[in-house]
Amino acid sequence: MPAYRLDLAYDGTGFHGYARQPNVRTVQRELEEALIHHAGMVETIVAGRTDRGVHASAQVVSFVTRRDLDVDSVVRSLNSLLGEEIAVTALRLVEDDFHARFSAESRAYRYEIDNRVVQDPLRARYSWHVRAPLDLEAMNEGTAVLVGGHDFAAFCRKAEGLGTVREVLWAGWHVTGDTVEFSIAAESFCHQMVRSLVAVLVMVGRSRMPASEIKAILAAGDRNRARGAAPSQGLTLVGVGYPGEPLEPPAWLTATP
Questions:
Q1: Residue 189 DSSP symbol
Q2: Average pLDDT, the chain
């Protein structure tokens, strides 16, 4: 059966995450219901399952169908059916062994903080409002120890039978005006890992924890030392890397000081 790759973006505010769940609104449910008109009943495989309220600007799914699709026509139709919260940016035929999740070599996320004294209501759906000043130098010092292979048990919500060792490719903080941005990429992430890291690193930025404590928490592997997670609305999946399509870090992260 033909295999297809579908690229999409979505505003996660009104969804209970990507994955289909009973009796709640999810991205997967709405996407698959729209696809029925062209591909019949299919099950989409997703590169990275996003939680409730988390957004995506570059999500990837794959599916197989017995039908040959006119991809340009299907993209136009899907975008008409799905409305303004979900946008299909590309659809193409791929090799039979392509798998949105298992073929992926890396994922990248961005977390945005609105660091104004008074919250900007136009950014409330896509950022975490932190009014206190943040020490970016300290936050980047704490972030530096995360790069490479580590056991992130202290920063992961436990999942039965799943390990917590991950390889972080890059991570760092950047400020533009009153927007503070965290960028991170890894081969894969465990549940709530990025939001947990953001929560603890903001504590560092607010001088409630020394930057050196991050290394100690990582080594201890104790979730009790890194409890909590930053709000979901600030998090966006911004990239998925595949063989021949590697992810590139943001320019500010590689710029020479």
A1: -
A2: 95
